[in-house]
Amino acid sequence: MMDSTTNQPTTFLGRTGVEVSRLCLGTMMFGDWGNKDHDDSIRVIHRAIDAGINFIDTADIYSFGESEAIVGKAIAQSGKRDDIVLATKFFNGMKQEPNYRGGSRRWIIRSVEDSLRRLGTDYIDLYQMHRPDEHTDIEESLGALDDLVRQGKVRYIGSSTFQPSQVVEAQWAARERRTERFVTEQPPYSMLVRGIEADLLPTTHRHDMGTLVWSPLAGGWLSGKFRAGQHLPTTHRSDRDPGRYDLTKPGIKAKFDAADRLGALADDLGVPLVHLAIAFVLRHPGVTSAIIGPRTMEQLESQLAAASLELDDATLDAIDEIVPPGTNVNPDDAGFANYWLSPGRRRR
Fold this sequence. Notes:
- By secondary structure, the chain is an alpha/beta fold.
- It has a single domain (10-346), classed as Alpha-Beta Barrel (TIM Barrel).
- 37% of the residues lie in helices and 13% in strands.
- It has 12 helices and 10 strands.
- The longest helix has 20 residues, at 250-269.
- The N and C termini lie far apart (55 Å).
């Protein structure tokens, strides 16, 4: 559906009845990790809101709270808090000391108060567990989150980068203990990272969950800058983590080659690769919204029209020939490091 007052298509967030834009504004790049200019970051957020994006996603760990503070200030200045579906996350360590991370009741109760203060709001629409916690029973986390919903501090709860079995376990535990359940899952998904098609997306679909996919541009690899015959571009991300762009590694070389072929396909279609990439993930029936993560106004403007692009079956077939369904070109991009495969977990 299309909101009559904007140019952004919308859909429902799982079975919550909440209507959200198909583009969700991710804010990891606002603050010390990306755009250090708060006023400029706020202008980007305001432009996204004015363009019809009503869904904003952040996390406490993004620039260690700075992103939440920027988002909170931007929403306050916009005067549109009631129109925004505001999502944030907890789990990652906010200090070096013990007990400032994870899924324990102790940390959840503390972290939500910190996020509410930084965001300048008295409720969070969607509060998400950023990663599964191997040291904490999921019932412990769900019980604490259930209390937050009953207290009115949180409207809905979700998970992020859970494996299919963990999604099912959390759904079962919520039903067994009669607590609030995760209504969303947030995995990585792009034309280069398609592993979730095999099991995760069918799982979230069966449980009527909304699925908010992060990194639809594969960390910038689908920005159109990675093409054969050109020097590997220097980007903000490559400056921060050059090892992820080392073409001597087979997985990264394979990703570069696939990105080049996808870029050529976009050229043949006469559309920007950025638009093709975002439209691709939104075409999957199990995907609710694509989380875009612009650092600058230029990057935002280059992505706003993508949700309206319709891809036909021939285009989707051509993408499948380059990257087969259900596969990750570089296995390291799955987003989830399976700790059970570490040597210490496999050897007596």
